[in-house]
Amino acid sequence: MRSDNPAEIALSNDLEVRDERGLIAQDYFDQVEAAIEQRDRELLLELTQDLHEADMGDLIEAFGPRDRQDFLDLLAEDFDFSALTELDDSLRLKIVDALPNEVVAEGVKELDSDDAVIILEDMEEEDREEILAQLPVMDRIQLKRSLDFPEDSAGRRMQTEFIAVAPFWTVGQTIDYMRETIDLPDEFNQIFVIDPAHRLLGSVSLDTLLRSRRPTKITEIMDETRHYVTAEEDQEEVSRLFERYDLLSAAVVDESERLVGVLTIDDIVDVIHEEAEEDIKRLGGVGDEEITDTVIETVRSRFTWLAVNLLTAILASWVIALFDSTIEQMVALAVLMPIVASMGGNAATQTMTVAVRALATQEIDSFNMMRVVSREVLVALLNGAAFAVLVGAIAGFWFENFDLGLVIGAALVINLFFAGLSGILIPLGLEKLGADPAVASSVFITTVTDVVGFFAFLGLAAWWFGLV
Amino acid sequence: MRSDNPAEIALSNDLEVRDERGLIAQDYFDQVEAAIEQRDRELLLELTQDLHEADMGDLIEAFGPRDRQDFLDLLAEDFDFSALTELDDSLRLKIVDALPNEVVAEGVKELDSDDAVIILEDMEEEDREEILAQLPVMDRIQLKRSLDFPEDSAGRRMQTEFIAVAPFWTVGQTIDYMRETIDLPDEFNQIFVIDPAHRLLGSVSLDTLLRSRRPTKITEIMDETRHYVTAEEDQEEVSRLFERYDLLSAAVVDESERLVGVLTIDDIVDVIHEEAEEDIKRLGGVGDEEITDTVIETVRSRFTWLAVNLLTAILASWVIALFDSTIEQMVALAVLMPIVASMGGNAATQTMTVAVRALATQEIDSFNMMRVVSREVLVALLNGAAFAVLVGAIAGFWFENFDLGLVIGAALVINLFFAGLSGILIPLGLEKLGADPAVASSVFITTVTDVVGFFAFLGLAAWWFGLV
């Protein structure tokens, strides 16, 4: 406790790894870079040997591609593979792909099962098999079982190292067992109770164990497990369970209710982060892009979304083209029409954002669905009315045409009504169909508000002014 | 373990509280509602007494306003206030405001300090003082101290109940102390070591304690605390620390380095959720809105954002108005111009989404900033070129005018370039100015892409075709 700042970690040579904002410190980074440039392996080891895997991960992300490669080459067999689990998926894959399979096998050997799975799961089938073949047989069997579970399932994320005891043991026996066993998991906060067929009976938290007297039977202090997870379950569902019941860890069982692993909250924190990030990125139309992706990868991943957007923009243009002679006779319509479309787009985005989040956090259910939908429609109509007056007045004065103000006001009410309705119904519909409401909502919604906006405004104008 | 589904919890009367999707089960809900309608307090108690606070919270959120009030009136003093901590902020405030202060004081008495703070912090000053005055003096002092810390600080979120021992104690003494003390915190996974002045020296995790022999001195197994938190620190920084180092709990110290509380991962999980939710909502222009807000609250909160959007839309209209005679002579321009603006808006949103997330997770730092900016510009130019060809060809064929295709292609490259540049520079600039990049980015960015898009397309067309 020599420093006022919790994020600062002192190394033996008194160099701070992170600055006051929690980022990798410039001074430290410069020294590491100098060591790389001078190919000074000894200095590099000294600088990095005490790093937490998270600090090591951030350091690797801070390097440019060349420094990164040199850094790994210099550390060679002293590089701790656990740092790889802290990296973006795409960067991790890039690094692992560049290493010889034997080196990866050696590195993976040292890891907990859940960390090893993270490194292996994204690799090419062939490389993965080659690496698995070089692992001790027990490790290989455990890892293969984890990898056989679906992507993003509890079975993939679980740790297969845990402590399980028999129900007839006493507290004393259990404590002695833990004192004598060397090969325990690194950290744990509960022990599990299983029957002879390895079926989960319950669990005992460490604080309960500590507070109980030695002769107490485990069954007396055991909690019957209310919240456990099946290995096939999706990580998003699992994270909801953790959040809902404030769990620190949960048992994972297979289809025969046998205990096969344990999920801990630190893995779940990553999942919560991933899922929220996924929603934000999908709403923004950028897929699984990471900041470390190359230019070409990024161009490709964004192209699809822009292409979809182009189709909807062309549809909107086609609607405008229906009224080309109207516009020719009254060019003020061309000037004002983006206002109608843009207000609708914004109102729909607001509704959609709330709807997508509420669906992701299960805040919308059959009990409140009708209430939520009618609330959105009412909000849309009220804001529609307010902006109809505002925009109508502005347009009326601008073009000294009171009728034009009336027409744009009416078009705004219509478009904001459809914006509210589609902003809530499209996400609900996509969820019902089993699609992710975040991924496709914004493109559908912009289409609706553009098409309705242009059609309502230009159509009303053509009819009102008789310009067909 | 009678059920295959981990989310299903059996009550004594064999009624499932949640369905297979993890939502409150319709059958259960109907029974509760019937009990409310029949004002059958006994049945209601039986139905709800075993509920976890999270289940109780979701049940309350599922009710309509009238049922909610009746439910609380019927349960009266048997209502467990911890369920309130599971509700949306605005709904919780509404419920607490409707209850007499004496009832709230009674309810708060039973809670852990961190839960009590959540209920008290949003109340009117006057009500809060009245409630605090009715609490036991020790509780009052602790709560007041927590409430004196800034909003969203570690001091607000921390639990003031923890176990701290002296460094010269042995493992045996510590275990005996825990066995004999009744008033321990409900759950804990580490104990702290303090000096006589209450300054934090270190911590011992429960698994280490369990694995050590009774005569072992605490100092021998104590970890010097590397990661701790000051009470004034913002919860977002704290959550980064938890995530980075996979912490389960962290000590909170005051300005004199005295141990004042403990933060646990379950509170941090809520923070992570809140912060991600805040980003999503700000990007979508909906502020702190909750699904339980009333229509009027929602209209008001969304109005501001729509009004800002109106200003930018009027600016774009003004740009179009500069070229009204051009459009009059060539109405195809009015038909095509939304395509240029919309593609730019989308490309900018993509860049901005990645930038805002990367800033929130500190993935952008001084080491990679230049690399990130030039990557975005390059991506924008490449996609700009691709869509210039595509859109140019479409426009050329549609209006049988090859020159129009050239003009729209050039306008697209220009707009996508500015889209990429503003998509990355505006968030970076806002962050530099100390503003939240998420809150204002999208409005600035749409303004840029609309204005540049219309100006580039119409301006180029006016010049190329000589239509001024």
From TrEMBL, chains A, B:
Gene Ontology terms, MF aspect: magnesium ion transmembrane transporter activity; metal ion binding
Principal place of residence: membrane
Location of the protein in the cell: Cell membrane; Membrane
UniProt-listed CDD domains: CBS_pair_Mg_transporter (cd04606)
InterPro entries per UniProt: CBS_dom, CBS_dom_sf, Mg_transptr_MgtE_intracell_dom, MgtE_N_sf, MgtE_transporter, SLC41_membr_dom, SLC41_membr_dom_sf
Domain CBS per the UniProt entry, residue ranges: 222-278
Pfam family, one: MgtE
GO CC terms of this entry: plasma membrane
Membrane topology of the entry: Multi-pass membrane protein
Family: Belongs to the SLC41A transporter family.
PANTHER family: MAGNESIUM TRANSPORTER MGTE
Protein task: Acts as a magnesium transporter.
Name of the featured protein: Magnesium transporter MgtE
